[in-house]
């Protein structure tokens, strides 16, 4: 059963696929909801606590992604290294992945990461030397916080983290998101 992530959890939410501010240029979610499996939610809250100890907050761009949305991204992205094949279920549709960044806790300002979220570009990779050194340090900080909380990175996307062995969970459709307020 998927569990919601809310600002009451001490997280910042910027669910991009509910807005036109994403790589498709159009909303692909009906509403800005972020959900994860209980194990993933617990690990994210552990990362939140580690970030808070450093004066930082986590900002969530995406979490559970219904299969219908996975198909929309599959058709929108030319470089398939940046989107999982929906025929294989993907990772986000299992509620086992999160896309996020770090923000200053006092101001809410995002730490620079060298590229934007969902930049389909080689510079988005962890360890890319095409981004400024300070941005590399911010990526390394996010990586350290997430790995210490039990997440695995996707090496081509600094913002994407997933549970170990995510395919042990079933892929879900939009019907997994309950109606009404979260």
Automatic annotation (TrEMBL):
Cofactors demanded by this protein: Zn(2+)
Keyword Magnesium applies: no
EC code(s) of this entry: 3.4.13.22
Family annotation (Pfam families): Peptidase_M15
GO biological process: cell wall organization; proteolysis
Residue numbers annotated as active site: 157 (proton donor/acceptor)
InterPro entries: A_A_dipeptidase, Zn_M74/Hedgehog-like
Similarity field: Belongs to the peptidase M15D family.
Function: Catalyzes hydrolysis of the D-alanyl-D-alanine dipeptide.
Protein name: D-alanyl-D-alanine dipeptidase
Gene: ddpX
């Amino acid at each position: 059963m998927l569990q919601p992530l809310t600002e009451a959890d001490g997280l910042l939410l910027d669910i991009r696929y509910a807005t036109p501010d994403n790589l498709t240029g159009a909303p692909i979610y009906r509403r800005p909801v972020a959900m994860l499996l209980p194990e993933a939610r617990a690990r994210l809250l552990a990362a939140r606590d580690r970030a808070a100890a450093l004066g930082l907050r986590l900002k969530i761009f995406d979490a559970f992604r219904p299969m219908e949305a996975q198909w929309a991204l599959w058709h929108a992205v030319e470089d398939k290294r940046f989107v999982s094949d929906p025929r294989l279920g993907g990772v986000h549709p299992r509620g086992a992945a999160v896309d996020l960044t770090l923000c200053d806790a006092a101001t809410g300002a995002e730490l620079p990461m060298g590229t934007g979220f969902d930049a389909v570009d080689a510079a988005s990779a962890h360890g890319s030397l095409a981004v400024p050194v300070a941005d590399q340090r911010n990526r390394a900080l996010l990586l350290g916080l997430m790995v210490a909380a039990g997440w695995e990175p996707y090496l081509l996307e600094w913002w994407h983290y997933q549970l170990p062995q995510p395919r042990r969970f079933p892929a879900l459709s939009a019907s997994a998101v309950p109606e009404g307020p979260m």
